[in-house]
Q: What sequence folds into this?
């Protein structure tokens, strides 16, 4: 029974033919047959970036089937494994993929690109201490979460025997939440004036009225806008769910001008990509406006509170793409200045005069 489950390189070379294009798919493919509990055959395959890794998988797979379970992992460098890992994240948003890629590459560069199977407690502790010295604890925790998922993937693919993140002596706290800054109308107006191009001003206005992510706004195309319904038809890849935010009347005209000007197939708004470090257009704008701690994602908080004050929790939850209204209230609640005004109109408890009692000019109280 072990013989019929043996693995082999596809087409003896590992190359998968692309008959329509007349070429081959990139990478190398390993195929093998498996069987379910009813004895039905299941065809399986797996992709590798390097031929040596594909051949090693075939050798190990066949050794396990013929000789029993051999506790042996496939040696692979961290950066080579990260390429395969990132290629498998194509369904996630660009921001999420960039987060994973940055965390893994910083880890590999700090340690000198070691083999995944050789990473242990000492290496993890060294990287955590390095990150804590140059970044906040919440940022370090975010990197550790990315590395944990990466090493879980490595264990599943026989690149590591165990996840080394669990061996760390001290891990950063995972329950740290950055306090979202409050954006007043005056500060928002100042931010718009600090932006240097019309496309960037329009992007910030869209984010502040719809709650869309920077990556979604960057990819906006002709097909994403329904001018008749005055709304967007978009897919938020972070949650794999469609959202239909409304387009404010004041933004319809500039959006129409860009649809008429930009060729089909190109993004409607230009110059929104990350430019790195202090040269990023967003960092330069918030610094000029005196809002250095403000992030683009904080505009989603601004939009959530703006939508909740106009439409209520239920409608705002649908536009933002949350599963329930209480999720919107939990993550994007900020005090309303109008609430403070209503509270101040009431008398301070214990100082109000009794109803029906008044003072005369002579100071005598009469009922």
A:
């Amino acid at each position: 029974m072990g013989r019929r489950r043996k693995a082999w390189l596809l087409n003896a070379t590992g190359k998968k033919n692309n008959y329509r294009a007349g070429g081959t798919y990139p990478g190398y493919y390993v195929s093998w047959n498996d069987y379910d509990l009813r004895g039905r055959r299941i065809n399986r395959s797996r992709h590798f970036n390097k031929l040596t890794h594909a051949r090693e998988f075939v050798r190990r797979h066949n050794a396990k089937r013929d000789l029993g379970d051999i506790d042996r992992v496939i040696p692979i460098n961290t950066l080579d494994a990260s390429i395969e890992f990132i290629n498998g994240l194509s369904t996630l948003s660009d921001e999420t993929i960039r987060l994973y890629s940055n965390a893994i590459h910083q880890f590999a560069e700090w340690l000198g690109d070691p083999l995944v199977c050789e990473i242990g407690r000492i290496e993890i502790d060294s990287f955590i201490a390095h990150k804590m010295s140059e970044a906040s604890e919440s940022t370090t925790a975010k990197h550790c979460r990315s590395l944990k998922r990466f090493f879980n993937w490595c264990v599943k693919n026989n690149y590591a025997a165990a996840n080394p993140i669990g061996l760390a002596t001290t891990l950063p706290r995972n329950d740290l939440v950055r306090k979202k800054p409050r954006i007043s109308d005056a500060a928002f107006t100042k931010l718009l004036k600090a932006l240097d191009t019309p496309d960037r001003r329009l992007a910030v206005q869209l984010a502040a009225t719809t709650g869309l992510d920077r990556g979604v706004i960057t990819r906006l195309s002709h097909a994403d806008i329904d001018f008749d319904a005055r709304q967007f038809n978009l897919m938020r890849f972070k949650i794999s769910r469609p959202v239909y935010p409304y387009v404010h009347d004041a933004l319809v005209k500039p959006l129409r001008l860009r649809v008429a000007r930009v060729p089909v197939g190109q993004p409607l708004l230009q110059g929104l990509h990350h430019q790195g470090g202090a040269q990023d257009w967003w960092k330069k704008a918030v610094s000029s406006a005196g809002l250095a701690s403000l992030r683009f994602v904080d505009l989603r908080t601004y939009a959530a509170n703006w939508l909740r004050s106009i439409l209520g929790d239920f409608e705002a939850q649908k536009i933002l793409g949350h599963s329930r209204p209480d999720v919107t209230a939990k993550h994007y609640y900020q005090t309303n200045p109008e609430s403070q005004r209503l509270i101040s109109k009431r008398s301070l408890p214990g100082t109000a005069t009794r109803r029906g009692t008044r003072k005369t000019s002579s100071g005598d109280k009469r009922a």
User: Anything to note?
Assistant: The chain has 14 helices and eleven strands. The CA atoms of residues 116 and 272 lie 36 Å apart. The chain has three domains: 3-67, 78-167, 185-340.
